[in-house]
Write a structure and sequence with these properties.
Elements: E1 4-7, E2 17-20, E3 25-29, H1 36-44, E4 55-57, E5 63-68, H2 70-77, H3 94-139, H4 141-146, H5 164-172, H6 185-193, H7 213-216, H8 234-240, H9 243-250, E6 259-261, E7 268-271, H10 272-281, H11 284-316, H12 324-350, H13 362-387, H14 389-407, H15 409-451, H16 457-471, E8 476-482, E9 487-492, H17 510-526, E10 537-543, H18 551-566, E11 573-578, H19 581-587, H20 592-598, E12 599-607, E13 610-615, H21 618-622, H22 625-632, H23 639-657, H24 677-683, H25 702-715, H26 719-726
Parallel strand pairs: 3-11, 3-12, 5-10, 10-11
Antiparallel strand pairs: 1-2, 1-4, 6-7, 8-9, 12-13
Helix pairs in contact: 3-5, 3-15, 6-14, 11-12, 16-17, 22-23, 25-26
């Protein structure tokens, strides 16, 4: 039995919509264009690629869906040779019939056993699925913990962030060895964080190449720089032993007359000749040495600035990491050393005759270059990684999942143990189901072999011809076209078979074609599609069998459906689709309790978002009460339809709206007039849905029926309601 039908992404069904039922009879009402044909086409050919997003649930292997719709008509009636052969069970040999009945009973018992096994399997699968869901939820913590934007390992979850099951299966498929896990998640984060952002190759740092050695080893620093020893005053300066003191004092001597004040004793003892002698002492060699000392000092200052800028750049480098404290210590020591050397150079410049020595920075240069080497190694490692970014990420991913597999090893091992036990149980059941299928198949072969001798096509054709007459179609019939091929054709009136057109079926009206095709479908449902196809469980789907019919046939097609499908236990389930509210109402079960037990009503709707199914209450049919009035108000409608609609209106209005006893209304004396007898007889029938109801009303007089109909409303006090609904002032 079909329990759930899902239609999605086809025709007007733009989004997924579901029809769920547990009832044998399912009636679907919908206007033209809302999707009825799409639904029946899916049930007719569910394997079509256009229905790849549609599903149905509840079917067993033994269920057969028989669908009447436009696809059925096209496949069976529009072939060049005319109507296809009809195979049906009919007159059967008693012995063969007993074999078939006995075997079918055995098949049904086997099918029941198979259903029990399938249920046991479903229960086991459901239990395992529930336990698996618990494990899946637990493993999902990996995504929760590592998918945050700030996490550098976010990319390891690519492809597993939206689906719990895929993440779980990824972890299941990951192999790991606890002995080989010599890294941590923090190690991976450090390794991966450099792969985030704008991935460009980074430049390495040049080694420190600031030459302080030439300054530190300069001979001028150890040279006693003196003036001209040939000067007349050289002996005096040597005796004083401080040429630097004298040289410093010259700056303050200024002879304007014969004599000038001495900068040291402040007495006028300095003559021009004496000043010249002193000046001659400090000759060009002395001045050159002094200038070179100044250059050395300036060079040392500049190189010091360059050195500290170099150290500053090193400190900015992101790969300095653990060496930061070391470089800061070097920087501090260099500041002190260089400041001391600067003081020494300043003193040497001021007192060139002094011998001085600078402290070397060679050891610091070596240590700085060691740090630079470590930084450059890390930069080169990074550059190599981004050259093969995908390969680098894949290696990190592999390590990440190995760590996760290790972290959740206890949960995974428990799951695998439970899964193994569950699979063993399921395999046992599947083996038993397979054996049952083989036995059922053999039993069906027995039925099929016997059925070859029980198919009686002529009886099926006779049934169709009889039903045509019952419906009121007498202007054509069906005749044998080919004895050996078991082909049949339609014959109109007294037409001569030999002279008639072989394509005469195409001359029929759409309504007549629909009647013939539906009668053919009924015979097909009684028997089988062919003599090899066996089915114990039949699901019948009927899509709008009255869409092209005159109203004169609507009632009788409804009665035919009642008799052939709704009032029989032959079929497991029935689905009927129609655009006609009148026809829909004709098929509903009037008794509330029986309707609740066996029928389910649906409406197919369509809006801007597409078509969808909605469950429908019986009372909602009554909301279309006006549809019956529109038929009653049109005297050109068939008598049967007008009379039936009158009764529907009265029954609904008094029984459902006014809560009055419908039958008591016709006890009013005003309605006992002779001309109203026919009206009273048809209105007072036990049910308007009986098979013997008004199809051929020979006594029908529209005006007298209309007058009686109006009188009912007037004598019960609803004159204004009648005026409103009949559109008469």
């Amino acid at each position: 039995m079909l329990s759930k039908i899902t239609i999605n992404n086809v025709a007007s069904f733009k989004r997924s919509t579901t029809l769920e039922t547990d009832k044998k009879v399912n009636l679907l009402y919908g206007l033209n264009g809302v999707g009825k044909s799409t639904l029946s086409s899916f049930l007719y050919n569910p394997k079509s690629s256009r229905f790849s997003y549609c599903t149905m649930e509840g079917l067993n292997n033994d269920d057969t869906i028989l669908v009447y719709n436009q696809d059925f008509i096209r496949d069976h009636f529009y072939e060049p040779e005319g109507i296809g052969g009809i195979f049906t069970l009919s007159k059967e040999n008693k012995e063969i019939n007993e074999i078939i009945n006995k075997t079918n009973k055995e098949i049904n018992d086997l099918i029941a056993n198979k259903k029990d096994q399938i249920e046991k399997k479903k229960e086991l699968e459901a239990s395992h699925k529930k336990r698996k869901s618990d494990y899946v939820d637990k493993i999902w913590n990996i995504k929760i913990n590592y998918s945050r934007d700030e996490e550098s390992l976010n990319f390891c979850l690519d492809g597993y962030k939206k689906n719990k099951s895929s993440l779980f299966e990824k972890l299941l498929s990951t192999e790991y060895s606890a002995d080989k896990l010599d890294y941590t998640i923090d190690d991976l984060k450090k390794e991966a964080k450099f792969l985030i952002g704008d991935l460009k190759e980074k430049n390495t740092i040049q080694n420190m190449k600031i030459d302080f050695t030439s300054i530190e080893n300069s001979k001028l620093l150890s040279k006693v720089i003196l003036g001209n020893t040939d000067s007349s005053i050289s002996d005096l300066i040597d005796m004083l032993g401080n040429s630097d003191w004298v040289n410093e004092g010259i700056k303050y001597i200024q002879v304007d007359g014969d004599k000038a004040k001495c900068p040291f004793c402040q007495k006028e003892t300095i003559t021009k000749d004496f000043l010249k002698s002193i000046t001659d002492y400090f000759d060009e060699n002395y001045k050159n040495d002094k200038e070179m000392l100044s250059e050395i000092k300036n060079d040392y200052y500049k190189k010091s600035e360059i050195l500290f800028e170099y150290i500053k750049e090193i400190k900015k480098n992101e790969y300095l990491s653990d060496n930061r404290q070391k470089i800061e210590k070097i920087e501090l020591e260099l500041i002190n050393l260089i400041d001391e050397n600067k003081k020494i150079l300043t003193q040497k410049e001021k007192f060139p005759s002094n011998i001085v020595e600078l402290k070397s920075i060679n050891q610091y240069e070596y240590e700085i270059n060691e740090i630079v080497l470590d930084i450059n190694n890390k930069i080169n490692d990074y550059n190599n990684k981004i050259k093969d970014i995908n390969g680098t990420k894949e290696k990190i991913k592999d390590k990440f999942w190995e760590l996760m597999r290790g972290e959740y090893s206890s949960a995974i091992d428990s799951y695998l143990f439970e899964k193994k036990n569950s699979n063993n149980e399921i395999e046992k059941i599947e083996k038993e189901i397979s054996e049952l299928d083989m036995t059922i198949g053999k039993k069906k072969e027995i039925v099929s072999d016997n059925m070859k001798h029980t198919v009686n096509i002529d009886n099926a054709v006779e049934s169709i011809k009889k039903n045509l007459v019952d419906i009121g179609i007498t202007d054509f019939t069906i005749e044998k076209y080919s004895e050996e091929k078991a082909l049949y054709r339609l014959k109109r009136g007294n037409e001569n078979l030999e002279s008639s057109s072989s394509n005469i079926f195409q001359t029929l009206s759409e309504g007549e074609k629909m009647v013939i095709s539906f009668l053919y479908f009924i015979e097909l449902c009684k028997g089988e599609k062919n003599n090899r196809e066996i089915s114990n469980n039949k699901i019948v789907v009927i899509d709008d069998p009255i869409s092209s019919l005159s109203h004169i046939y609507v009632f009788n097609i409804g009665r035919l459906i009642h008799n052939e499908f709704l009032r029989t236990e032959t079929y497991n389930q029935i689905f009927i689709l129609t655009h006609s509210l009148y026809f829909f109402y004709e098929l509903t079960q009037m008794n509330k309790d029986r309707r609740k037990e066996s029928q389910k009503l649906f409406r197919i709707c369509k809006n801007d978002t597409g078509s969808f199914f909605v469950e429908m209450k019986y009372e909602e049919i009554q909301n279309d009460y006006q549809a019956y009035w529109s038929i009653v108000n049109d005297k050109n409608q068939p008598p049967a339809l007008i009379a039936n609609c009158m009764r529907n209106i009265l029954e609904y209005f008094f029984n459902f709206v006014e809560k009055q006893d419908f039958n008591n209304i016709f006890q009013k004396p005003e309605l006992h007039n002779v001309k109203f007898q026919s009206f009273n007889r048809y209105m007072n029938r036990e049910s308007h849905s009986k098979g013997q109801n008004i199809f051929d009303i020979k006594e029908f007089d529209y005006e007298s029926f209309r007058e009686a109909f109006k009188l009912v409303f007037e004598i019960t006090g609803y004159k204004e309601h009648y005026k409103k609904m009949s559109k008469k002032k």
